[in-house]
DNA sequence: TCGAACATATGGTAATGGCA
DNA sequence: TGCCATTACCATATGTTCGA
């Protein structure tokens, strides 16, 4: 009630002042007249409001505070938004604030801004007169003012004395100049608005700059009260802003970390020349932040968060969203009709326009034909179509967005286009674009500055077999265990030689692999109905036989029969193939709820990790984001990622995938995003156990493989033909497939027959379990 | 009876590759 | 490097079957 009448008085003060715009007049009649006019209802109000003390306070506040436009705006805005519950409702409060700031306008602006910001964010409840006037644990104003001091020191002497990239410095100063710029450029008050703000400029930043940004935000601009206790302690001990930052946890550790990162970055630049064959580890550290470099443990934060009643889950979500908004950009292709339309959508994101010269790695433009689209019929067997017009549109758009021209006949140094060809033989669809590459004659490509390389990626035979269910095993060399990968890049691009991440050899060789293709059932799956929405026009009719593409004119039926007869094993009914429908024949039409892999021919993430490592990737523009697993990997490793999805549905799907991964990464000590204060203790524990289990499994597997090899050798020596007949193997296998987690195997010994991959065995096991469960 | 949803055949276009 | 037969891709046409 008190605040209500105070507010009214105050409002009258400035309405009067604003209309008159003459302070002298306000002193005299005007104020009294106003009071008389409006005070008819309540005599008590009238009496209190006309008290000389109150009027004096009003006039003081008006003079010292409200004559200044920015200050007045904040107070008026607060009042407009929150009416009586505004934190500034109360003339004495404002007076007290003036006193605290010693009438300094910029201090007042900061204080009002901070208060209003926190109030809007819902993390400031008690901002009463008593709170302002007395020191204590709930005192906010002094804390805010101390935070201002800290901010000034950080943006001034701290930045000046650090060897940060100048571009980052100026951006930091721009963003943290005021509350306004902070909410407009980085962190809006309303969470939904975050989408409208492009913060992807962070993605090009070195870790030191990112940590500085984090420090600035948490120390001076944060809306939650995480480190308020520390600041209060500093105030109590009479510390200045600088001392507070340099002497108190967690700021002290953050600054140390920033300095360590700066040192490392400098060293990396100096060592860059030295990065030659063999030393994969230091190179990796350049681009991918050291997992152990995650934020230092701050249990006090957690306690305080709990004490404040903040919901950890929502905090975690908000944090994950922040990370994603910094590193992930998605656009859908289908709803942008022209290359120009798509380009202007892409142009909005800094991440697309990133300058390769300022990066500590290369910009990789990835295209995986396996994930371009999907054959309408028999997608598991037919290769995905490539729609040249859409492809051209996408590349033209990237060109337009990045350099203003749709052509790709010249590339910037540092740009690398990687294309995995998906097992096709005509490789000219991209060569045409660059004017260089397979399918373009030497004469035509003469004079171009673009170079290209061909790398063969290989897959383990077992994993290929597990996917190609209908292939006759008799057909010679029909099971393709390799795909070609092409790299196009400007001659000036720096691609240091380094060891492959997941396979033997270095990127000086033209071979990469072998990788293990996941079985159908391990791929991310979605309902069939959703798939149609997801792919949109990328679902296209693809001609050709469904057998397997081999020229042998015997059909699938023959193959199947033959296989069933000969081996009794590799057969659709036994390998759990996702339901693909089979027309109106013997089977039913697919229900929209039937689960299918989102992308049938998706490559394992390890392949792309290897490719990104081999090309020293710092940023990724993905033309075929597929199920979003590469996106998730990139975000979890703090690499910028731009995904050009097919449709809006596709975008949403990828976003969901990345969100899940990021949330998991927050609780995973092995991840670069690990945040101890936000970690879900249960998941954290599980993650630790999982790593341990995997290590043990690996050991066991190695031992088993050795044993199997030994046994096979023995069998061979005996001259026994154990290769063809193997109906027995259904009962074998320990189903210890990594990742699938079906630990229901009977734990049988590794049989001497054939030696199926653990993944295949797991699939068989699963299928068997399903049969027994349903039947 | 007709449309939906699939399978399958066909032919135009462009790339490929052998050869001179 | 140019010619030309062959091959690959894939849009389109046609066929098949079910259920409303």
Automatic annotation (TrEMBL):
Q: Which residue ranges have biased composition labelled Gly residues? A: 740-755
Region span, Disordered? 273-303, 567-586, 687-775
- The source's superkingdom equals Eukaryota
- Ranges of Basic and acidic residues compositional bias? 687-704, 723-733, 765-775
**Biased amino acid composition, Acidic residues:** 567-577
Query: What is the protein named?
Result: Uncharacterized protein
Q: Which organism is it from?
A: Symbiodinium microadriaticum
């Amino acid at each position: 009630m008190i605040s209500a009448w105070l507010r009214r008085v105050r409002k009258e003060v400035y309405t009067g002042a604003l209309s008159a715009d003459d302070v002298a007049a306000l002193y005299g009649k005007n104020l009294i007249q106003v009071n008389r006019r409006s005070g008819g209802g309540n005599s008590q109000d009238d009496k209190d409001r006309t008290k000389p003390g109150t009027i004096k306070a009003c006039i003081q506040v008006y003079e010292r505070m409200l004559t200044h436009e920015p200050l007045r705006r904040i107070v008026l805005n607060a009042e407009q938004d929150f009416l009586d519950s505004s934190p500034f409702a109360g003339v004495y409060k404002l007076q007290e604030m003036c006193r605290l700031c010693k009438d300094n306008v910029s201090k007042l602006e900061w204080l009002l801004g901070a208060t209003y910001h926190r109030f809007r964010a819902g993390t400031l409840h008690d901002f009463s007169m008593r709170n302002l006037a007395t020191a204590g644990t709930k005192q906010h104003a002094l804390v805010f003012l101390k935070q201002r001091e800290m901010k000034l020191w950080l943006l001034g002497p701290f930045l000046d004395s650090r060897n940060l990239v100048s571009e980052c410095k100026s951006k930091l100063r721009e963003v943290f100049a005021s509350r306004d710029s902070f909410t407009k450029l980085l962190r809006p008050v309303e969470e939904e608005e975050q989408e409208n703000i492009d913060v992807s400029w962070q993605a090009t930043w070195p870790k030191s700059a990112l940590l500085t940004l984090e420090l600035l935000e948490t120390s001076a601009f944060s809306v939650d009260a995480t480190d308020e206790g520390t600041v209060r302690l500093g105030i109590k001990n009479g510390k200045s802003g600088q001392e507070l930052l340099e002497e108190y946890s967690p700021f002290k550790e953050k600054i140390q970390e920033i300095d360590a990162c700066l040192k490392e970055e400098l060293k990396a630049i100096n060592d860059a020349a030295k990065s030659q064959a063999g030393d994969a580890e230091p190179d990796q550290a350049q681009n991918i932040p050291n997992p152990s470099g995650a934020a230092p443990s701050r249990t006090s934060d957690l306690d305080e968060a709990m004490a404040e009643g903040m919901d950890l889950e929502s905090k975690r979500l908000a944090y994950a969203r922040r990370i994603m908004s910094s590193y992930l950009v998605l656009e859908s292709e289908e709803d942008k009709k022209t290359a120009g339309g798509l380009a202007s959508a892409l142009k909005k994101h800094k991440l697309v326009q990133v300058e390769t010269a300022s990066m500590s790695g290369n910009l990789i433009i990835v295209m995986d034909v396996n994930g371009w689209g999907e054959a309408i019929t028999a997608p598991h067997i037919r290769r995905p179509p490539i729609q040249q017009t859409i492809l051209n549109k996408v590349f033209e758009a990237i060109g337009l967005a990045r350099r203003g021209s749709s052509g790709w006949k010249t590339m910037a140094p540092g740009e690398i286009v990687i294309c995995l060809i998906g097992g096709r033989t005509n490789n000219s669809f991209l060569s045409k674009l660059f004017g260089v590459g397979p399918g373009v004659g030497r004469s035509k490509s003469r004079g171009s500055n673009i170079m290209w390389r061909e790398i063969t990626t290989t897959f383990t035979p077992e994993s290929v077999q597990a996917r190609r269910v209908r292939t006759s095993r008799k057909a010679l060399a029909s099971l393709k265990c390799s795909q070609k990968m092409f790299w196009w890049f400007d001659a000036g691009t720096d691609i240091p030689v380094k060891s492959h991440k997941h396979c033997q050899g270095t990127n000086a060789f033209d071979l990469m692999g072998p990788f293990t293709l996941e079985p159908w059932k391990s791929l991310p799956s979605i309902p069939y109905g959703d798939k149609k929405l997801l792919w949109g026009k990328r679902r296209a009719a693809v001609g050709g036989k469904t057998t397997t593409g081999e020229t042998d004119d015997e059909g699938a039926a023959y193959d199947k029969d033959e296989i069933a007869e000969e081996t009794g094993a590799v057969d659709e009914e036994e390998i759990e193939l996702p339901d693909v429908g089979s027309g109106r024949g013997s089977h039913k039409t697919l229900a929209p709820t039937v689960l299918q892999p989102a992308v049938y021919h998706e490559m394992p993430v390890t392949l792309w990790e290897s490719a990104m490592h081999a090309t020293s990737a710092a940023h990724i523009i993905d033309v075929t984001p597929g199920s979003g697993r590469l996106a998730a990997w990139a975000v979890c490793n703090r690499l910028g990622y731009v995904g050009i999805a097919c449709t809006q549905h596709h975008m949403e799907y990828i976003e969901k995938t990345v969100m899940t991964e990021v949330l998991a990464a927050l609780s995973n000590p092995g991840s670069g995003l690990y945040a101890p204060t936000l970690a879900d203790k249960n998941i954290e524990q599980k993650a630790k156990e999982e790593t341990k289990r995997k290590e043990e499994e690996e050991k066991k597997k190695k031992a088993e493989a050795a044993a199997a090899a030994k046994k096979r050798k023995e069998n061979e020596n005996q001259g026994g033909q154990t290769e063809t007949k193997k109906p027995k193997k259904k009962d074998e296998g320990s189903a210890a497939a990594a990742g699938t987690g079906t630990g229901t195997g009977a734990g049988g010994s590794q049989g001497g027959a054939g030696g199926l991959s653990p993944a295949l065995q797991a699939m068989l096991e699963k299928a068997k379990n399903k049969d027994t469960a349903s039947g």
